[in-house]
Amino acid sequence: MSSASHLYVHLPFCSSRCGYCDFVTVVGRAGEHGRYVDALLAELELERALLAPRPETVYLGGGTPTLTDAGAFERLLAALPEAAEVTVEANPETVTDELARLLSRNRVNRVSIGAQTFNSALLEVLERRARPDDVRRAVHRVRDAGIDNISLDLIYGIPGQGPSDLARDLAEALALEPEHISAYELEAKPGTRFTHAHGAELERQAAAMESYFEHVVETLTAAGYRWYETANFCRRGIRDLRARHNLGYWLGHDYLGIGVGAVSTIENRRWRNAPSLARYVAALSGGARPPREHEELAPPVRDAERLMLGLRLDEPLSVAGLEGTLDQSELERLTRGGLVTREEGSLLLTRRGRFLGGGVTARLLA
Amino acid sequence: MDQQHIRNFSIIAHIDHGKSTLADRILQLTETVSAREMRDQLLDSMDLERERGITIKAQAVRVQWKGHELNLIDTPGHVDFTYEVSRSLQACEGALLVVDAAQGIEAQTLANAYLAIENNLEIVPVVNKIDLPQADPERAAAEVADLIGEDPERVLPISAKTGQGVEAVLDAIVERIPTPHGDPGTPARALIFDSSYDQYRGVVAFVRVVDGVLRPREWLRTMALGTRFEAQEIGFMSPGNRPVKELTAGEVGYVITGLKDVSELRVGDTLTTDKHGALEPLPGYKDVKPMVFAGLFPTDSDDYPELRDALEKLKLNDAALFYEPETSQALGFGFRCGFLGLLHMEIVRERLEREFDLDLLVTAPNVAYRVKPVNGEWVEVHTPADLPDAFDEVEEPYIKASIIVPKEYVGTVMELNNDRRGKFDHLEYLSPERVHLTYELPLAEIVLDYYDQLKSRTRGYASFDYDVAGFRAGNLARVDILVGSEPVDALSLIVHRDFAYERGKALVEKLREEIPRQMFDVAIQAAIGARIIARETVKARRKDVLAKCYGGDITRKRKLLEKQKAGKKRMKSVGGVEVPQEAFLAVLNLNESAKR
């Protein structure tokens, strides 16, 4: 069995749950952080064979990883394998000078800050705790601690967000000169408390929001950022500032995920740990693997995923071996329509094609 | 039975005026069926008939009354089956004309009464439902008496529901309706007034013997079509099959033919013996032609074989149903079906969906056209897309419409008819309150929503009936709809040139609403020949992406895409444009104002 070069570590703890969130999160339970970290390390030990001795990337996501009790958190970071890129997700209000130094001394070299918006009223709509100044301070603290690869997460399409609000958010983000920006349209997932509260407003502004995506891409590329993935941008320059961990997903690499709700994909197997914190900790404290949901990835499924993920990038996707997955007549038509370009065994979406990437991919799948 | 003791009669009535209830009561009073066997509307055996309260297939029942043999010949109760009604009436010497005491005469009553008069039938007028609180028997009796030129005193007041007055009806049948007067000694001539298909015994013909005698095991022949067969069994219904050794002049009964295809036996044809047969057929045979056509396509193209089998089975019992395979580049494989009229179409569609559990897409109906291509011979066209670009002349079917309406709605009905290219023919007051209007109208103007419009504009008071009046020249043009520059055969329509622009414009506007935005701009155009008369654009989408996609949700995103892909497969693709099936019905939903 090959070994994965990418390790994902899930830290579910949050101080409160944001209305729009559908990740596996746990509010409170400060007393359980230590035992959870024990369980994480136990799982890592059980699956060590699946991981390369020196993985390329480690990514700690959440939840709010930086909310984890400092002692337990540092113990975890110290125990994780060395990697070229180690990223930690952070909520702005959790980034103190102490935390920034903790990250820095534990080889964390990339921090992804969940800014979302710089507008106080919209932050409240999203039920975020941070204030706009918290975001600015967090960026400076991380930089002062010597970490020189910062990503900001932005959300657009927030209920009540007008075009000028979006322009201001982008300007504020650019003023902080982050190496990387992720910009997501707000996904109001059915059944969430958020959709219940704001569904009507979201529907009302749906038509106007069509242009928001274009606006984001135009503004960021004009400011010297590379639109390297559907929702991700990095500063151009000598360094390649793309998120290497996430690039692993988009290029179809294997990855090991540990923690509650974490997903792993190794060759033709994918599994998801059950989302229950109690059961996760109980299983691993007894030396057993946590309950998991398994999925067999047949070759056509992996091929379809390769296409779906690869077409999100701004680099040509090699289609060698994917011929059976591609609907040739659709490919022909989409090429004629100026949404796809083809050259030497590879595919690339045009600029307009990338704005329609979901629909284009659905059509290309045979 | 000698002809002196035979009476053959039909019951004619507007829908819901009580024909079936009266028939039931007659069967009970004559002890043809016991109370235990009695079931409401015994004669209407199909579920659909019982539900809609209409009779689709006629049957004949023999009852005994005071030493006489009475044959009740049931008639189909709707306009689409006028020809079948007329054949049933031809098999009789008299008819009960039943009118609801509360409603009075309706358009269908008139149509059928005129048919009866044309067939020289003795009409026995009956006013039914006199037990209802809102009944006005005197007014209804006056209307009926006036219609047929009869003394109002001779109109029989009854309640078929309670049985009140029904014995008097039976007596009147014996007293007033003439006896048959055929010649039992000459070669046999029997009128086929209906047929049905029995899955074990084949085609069954329902006949009225006019002259001579029919016997079992005898070789018989139909005079118009020339079909030969050996009569397996002959008999009469009372109400079950009662085989007999012979049916003689004046009698009504059935012949089991052993034929396997109903189209070999046509209603209106004359049955005679194969050897020493009659020389002259009975008058009045017509080859009925379907006038209304529509494409029937399975919603799921995998159901095509099931649809074909279902149509084959329906056709066994419905000689008037016409179908042939049709391939639409937009809708795939299906059938172009011909119907006698709108109700016939509705019945066929419902039976296909209900009895055969098929999910169907039925295109907007159109009429048959006759066209003479440049330097060519006249041909009949059943689908608008088949109308050639260039032709010398084209003709469309016209109907004679008969409408009865309270006088305050005369203006609104006239307005509707004028909008529909109607030509005023006649106006007559049936009573101080009610007016009978006749118009000539192109059938094409009726097939879409005329009836609904008439009903809604008159608050449901208007009654309507029609008769096909033949083909007339029309200033017609074929309007094609192009989606993404490709013509969509299933959306072509034939319209009067004066309305072509408005209809084309309304249709492309409707389609713009129905066709979802795609990845490219989609032009929707209406054209006559090479000339574009209307155009709309469905603007391309500007965004269609899955915002986030990381390790934890690849499976879910992949499933989303697969779902998106599957959704597209349910749409019909025309020139690479995904068109939802609803769009093909857009022509049905053009609102009234857009149509003018």
Features:
heterodimer, A: 366 residues, alpha/beta, pyruvate-formate lyase- activating enzyme, Arc Repressor Mutant, subunit A, 2 domains, nine-stranded mixed sheet, B: 596 residues, alpha+beta, eight-stranded antiparallel sheet, globular, disordered C terminus
3D architecture notes:
- Chain A has two domains: 6-249, pyruvate-formate lyase- activating enzyme, CATH 3.80.30; 299-364, Arc Repressor Mutant, subunit A (Orthogonal Bundle).
- Helices cover 39% and strands 21% of the residues of chain A.
- Chain A is built from 14 helices and 17 strands.
- Chain A has a nine-stranded mixed sheet, sandwiched between helices. A three-stranded antiparallel sheet of chain A has the order 12-13-14, with no helix packed on it. Chain A has a three-stranded antiparallel sheet with strand order 15-17-16.
- In chain A, helix 1 (33-46) runs parallel beside helix 2, helix 1 crosses helix 10 (277-285) and helix 3 crosses helix 5 (132-144).
- Chain A is globular and about 60 Å long.
- The termini of chain B are far apart.
- In chain B, 48% of the residues are buried.
- In chain B, helix 5 links the parallel strand 5 and strand 6.
- In chain B, 24% of the residues lie in helices and 33% in strands.
- By secondary structure, chain B is of the alpha+beta class.
- The longest helix of chain B is centred in the last third of the chain and has 18 residues, at 497-514.
- Chain B contains 13 helices and 34 strands.
- The interface between A and B is medium-sized, with 45 and 25 residues.
Total number of helices of chain A: 14
Which residue ranges of chain B are poorly predicted, with pLDDT under 50 across at least 5 consecutive positions?
52-58, 591-596
The helix fraction of chain A, in percent, is 25-40%
Query: What's the story with the biggest beta sheet of chain A?
Result: 9 strands, mixed
Mean pLDDT, all residues of chain A:
93
The neighbouring-strand order within the major sheet of chain B is: 11-10-16-7-8-15-12-13
